[in-house]
Amino acid sequence: MNTAVAIDHVGVAARDLGPLTAAYERLGFALSPIAQQSGRRRPDLPVEQWGSGNRCAFLKHGYIELIAILDPALYDNTLNRFLDRYAGMHILALGVTDEDANLARMRAAGIDIPGIAWLERPVEKGGPIAKFARLPFPDPPEGRVQLIRHLTPELVWDPRWMDHANKAIALEEVILCSATPAETAARLSRLCGLPVEPDPAGGFLMRLPGAAAAAGPFAPVMETRVRILEEAALPTVLPGVTAPASPFMAGMVIRTEDGGVAARRVLEGVPTVETPAGVMVPPTHGAGAAVVFA
């Protein structure tokens, strides 16, 4: 298939990994071990170790990447540039089943992409190496927006770190806002090869149809959504949230297996807000990203 099929993951970025991961552990997520990244800066360059690293909350469908700078002496994987805009969500990765077919489609659409970008990292210190094929949109203002296929999904979606106290099971929706939502929606449509439609709140909505195991080896076929809202519409979906910059990756909706019952229990003592989709942790407690448990 030569289109995106599912939300694979989002990335929440900070300069310091410790406070970032502590915030998400407080929200009831179990996290994978620290993994420092390696990759090629361009398809024609050798693999090198990067200064960036992550811990992740792997769900049955998709995951949340918590990414920061582990070694400032090494290539920062553009994190400093992102963080100069704001701390929070800067990565949106959408799953594909065929990177070569999508590369051909993107080039036919006039996207100036040099080729498949390869990334790898150990799943844990001294452990096996997970590998990924990536198709990043070149320097979009929204952040790191890319298509991805996991070459070793069984290594990263490890049941050892998938038992979440909040009963999270799926990354169901990502919410962006923009002063020019039509431009952002057009870029995402070109990247994904999928149409957009009007969003009832104001802006645009992209539906990803789903595919078995497209967002992890345990992932069912399910629709996921990317919403690109007008700035004035953002508080109607994420109450109290305002954009520190435009475009802005504002938040995510996490599907739970019990309708948010366990999440509400875990979140006792954390300020929360009711939203149309579920209970929201505001960006002040989500490391710059709003997290809604549905």
What's a quick, concise take on this entry?
The protein is an alpha+beta fold. It is 18% helix and 35% strand.
Q: How many beta-strand runs? A: 16
Which CATH class of the largest domain? Alpha Beta
Helix/strand structural class: alpha+beta
Distance between the ends = 30 Å
Rg from alpha-carbon coordinates: 18 Å
State the CATH topology of the largest domain: 2,3-Dihydroxybiphenyl 1,2-Dioxygenase, domain 1
Any overview of this molecule?
The protein has 294 residues and is an alpha+beta fold. The protein has two domains: 6-161, 2,3-Dihydroxybiphenyl 1,2-Dioxygenase, domain 1, CATH 3.10.180.10; 168-293, 2,3-Dihydroxybiphenyl 1,2-Dioxygenase, domain 1, CATH 3.10.180. Helix content is 18%, strand content 35%. The chain has seven helices and 16 strands. It has helices at residues 17-26, 79-85, 99-108, 153-156, 181-192, 234-237, 261-266; strands spanning 6-13, 35-39, 48-58, 63-69, 88-95, 117-122, 129-136, 144-150, 168-178, 197-198, 203-208, 224-230, 248-256, 273-274, 279-281, 290-293. An eight-stranded mixed beta barrel has the order 1-4-3-2-6-7-8-5, surrounded by four helices. A hairpin with an 8-residue loop joins strand 15 and strand 16. The chain is globular and about 50 Å long.
